[in-house]
Amino acid sequence: MPRALLVAATLLLSACVPTLQTAVDPARLPAATDYGPHAFPMEWWYVSGFLPEEGLAFHWAQFQVRAANVPVPVMISHLALTDLRTGQVTFLEQSPGLGQAAFPPLKLGQGNWRLEQQGTDFRLNAGPLDLTLHPLKGPVLHPPGYSGSAETGLLYYQGVTRLALSGQVAGRSVQGQAWLDHQWGNQIPGRAALWDWFSVQLRGGDDLMVYRVRTPDGRVVQTVGSIVDARGNARPATNLTVEPGRTWQSAGGRTYTLSWHLRADEFDLTAEAVRDEQELLSRTTNIAYWEGPIRVMGTWGGQPETGQGMLEVVGGLLQPPAKPQ
């Protein structure tokens, strides 16, 4: 491209740079139907699912990162696929680069990986995933509508907790259920915040999200939970406690808690990892984390209950931030 044309294109793009938003206001929450994208420093969309009858679990994530005075956001994609029959974990990443993020309807893409809203459904095509996702419940804002604290930064929190899943995974025909999450705000994972996150789909039709936010030195600054009932209504899990249990140490020496006791006014549950070796080392985000399927059992409303879901435990940065010169 001729230099004059390159300069003109750069100026044009700079003129179109949206104003970077950095203030997350808990008193002014977005609509539950707001799938994004937004002009915040950090935003991501997750689709995850545990398919026990198929012997599979997966976690797909699309990140959008914005910086001041940069004309376009940087997109980063992750995909983790666990074959529970063989024990093989496949972790794929797409390096930071350009992509697509538009709404409405929601259209996300980086390279040939795409999540697109088609009518009431979503289509996910990413590496070995070729899936149709049909919401069984409407979108919700997870009470209190955000995760984090003033110390760690905040992320608005919206999503769909139960979707019927069909299609193919690594060439195998599958059916089951999935979970869609969407968060955006001014919190920078790994540097400002770590977390323990649970998505649980219970046999009786209720869904449970539990989120415990930690500072990099390990202090817990927020513990929240939300219940989405069988009709799709969201409410907070009151008097929630999250007690760590059994731990596992990876080959790299990082310790992850893989057994948990979750208690609140409405439930008393134990969550246990299906398998231990689920550490993911992301070179594109510089974060080490554990992501994998869990089984849940205990009582709900005083009655025996079981469920399944996914657990994510963020261990921290792979490498410390570079020191300024």
Automatic annotation (TrEMBL):
It comes from the Bacteria. SUPFAM superfamilies: AttH-like. Keywords: Signal. Residues 42-186 form the AttH domain. Pfam families: CrtC, Lipocalin_9. InterPro entries: AttH-like_dom_sf (IPR023374), AttH_dom (IPR010791). Residues 1-23 form the signal peptide. PANTHER family: BLL1000 PROTEIN, HYDROLASE. This is AttH domain-containing protein. The lineage of its organism: Bacteria, Thermotogati, Deinococcota, Deinococci, Deinococcales.
